[in-house]
Amino acid sequence: MSKLCVIGTGYVGLVTGTCFADLGNDVTCLDVNETRIENLINGIMPIYEPGLEEIVTQNTESGRLTFTTNFEEALKGADFAFIAVGTPSGDDGEADLQYVRSAAESIADLVNDPIIVVNKSTVPVGTGDWVTEIINKRRAGKPLDFTVVSNPEFLREGSAINDFMFPDRVVLGSINSDAAKSVAELYAPLRCPVMITDIRTAEMIKYASNAFLATKISFINEIANMCEEMGANVSEVSRGMGYDHRIGTQFLDAGIGWGGSCFPKDVKALAHMAVLHGTHPQLLQAVIEINRNQRRRVVLKLRKALGGLDDKVIGILGISFKPNTDDIRDSPTLEVIHLLQNEGAIIQAYDPQAMENAKKELKRVKYCENPYQVAEGADALILATSWNEFKQIDLKKIYDLMNQKIIVDGRNIWKPEVMRDMGFTYYDVGRGTNGDTEK
Ligand SMILES: NC(=O)c1ccc[n+]([C@@H]2O[C@H](COP(=O)([O-])OP(=O)(O)OC[C@H]3O[C@@H](n4cnc5c(N)ncnc54)[C@H](O)[C@@H]3O)[C@@H](O)[C@H]2O)c1
């Protein structure tokens, strides 16, 4: 059993801390956000993540998992300090490292025993060395026995517990292979491939992975746009491509584009790093550009279908950036709503989990209690997030409630022929529908 302190109790820190406790370690999760910690102590989850509440409860009851805002208490006697704080986009897309700096400074100020500092936050290449420098500088005259290990996180919101417990791989980067091996020991019960590299390579693996996945989505969206013009069906194209093992089926779903707390900021940060180092990230720029356009195309389709958006009532189904999460950070829906509002549209919206977060971010929106309220009096509906709840919706009821029967299916969840048979004017992404009402 090892003693871990996890700094930052968000999507990554809370899942990491809880899962390591579940694997038998003594874990203290630390955060500067007092309300978040107070809620966790009272069993209230700060985020929606399937299965999280159960596993947090089990491990707090067993005494292996505790929560605090007290840095001294959390770091006392810790063998490992995991940094899992946010690294949002700063100016020009550069990663903002202020929270990482602050976590490193706390470690420097409060730790006296040997410790391994594990960086789980997604950070620019070279940050591991920078964290080492921060700690060494602050401890000048009273050196601290520590090593920094980069351990990027690959979990996906919505399946985070499963992703942590059954990872495709664990990547560890350090100049000290013994320190990397000690971190590898923590993951040993998971019996997954562990790759030990130098620290900069580990940091780059994370960015390159996210940028590649975003590229795959932008690629299929570009193909989808071509399909729309050329009369092909992008879903079939994806399927036909995906059977090829070199390509694979995942991340080839055309739609209104990628978003979330990771892809947008990580692709931007990688492009920014590239420019700083004198290389030309043309591909990444195109990936970002295609994604931006994809959101605008939805608005374009609606404007055309409705002959203008002023005073039109548009219903939005789904606000989170993907299903099974309440996270709306950089969700494509937010931009689509802003664009529609700029043209005078009236928005009514519903999301199964993201309503509270949405209310803080989006004003002038009528928040509905269910999809049917969204449809009531709507001139058009946009399906923006592919929650299961929407796949089984009563479409007849939706049809009857709508003012004009126009649907833009931004995630291709419904069958075009079914929608047309029901009488909808149906648009999707790249399946050749173009608002046709006849087969
Ligand atoms: N969310 C994901 O799906 C995901 C997946 C892989 C990697 N990542 C990366 O992991 C990192 C964390 O992401 P997240 O989504 O969990 O962020 P988050 O915003 O959900 O959580 C960050 C937490 O850190 C806390 N914090 C900030 N400064 C602190 C400090 N000095 N001491 C203690 N707590 C502090 C904040 O209060 C917040 O609760 C980011 O670098 C992100 O890119 C995220």
Question: How would you describe the overall organization of this protein?
Answer:
This protein has a six-stranded parallel sheet with strand order 3-2-1-4-5-6, sandwiched between helices. Strands 11-10-9-12-13-14 form a six-stranded parallel sheet, with helices on both faces. The chain is elongated, with a radius of gyration of 24 Å. Helix content is 45%, strand content 14%. Helix 1 (11-22) crosses helix 3, helix 5 (98-110) packs parallel to helix 6 and helix 12 (282-306) packs across helix 13. The protein has two domains: 3-197, Rossmann fold; 234-427, NAD(P)-binding Rossmann-like Domain (Rossmann fold, 3-Layer(aba) Sandwich), CATH 3.40.50.720. It starts with a strand and ends in a 12-residue tail after the last strand. It is built from 18 helices and 14 strands. It is α/β, with parallel strands linked by helices. The structure holds nicotinamide-adenine-dinucleotide. The site of nicotinamide-adenine-dinucleotide (NAD) has 26 residues, from helix 1 and helix 5. Residues 7-13, 30-33, 36, 84-87, 99, 102-103, 121-122, 153, 155, 157, 261-262 line the site of nicotinamide-adenine-dinucleotide.
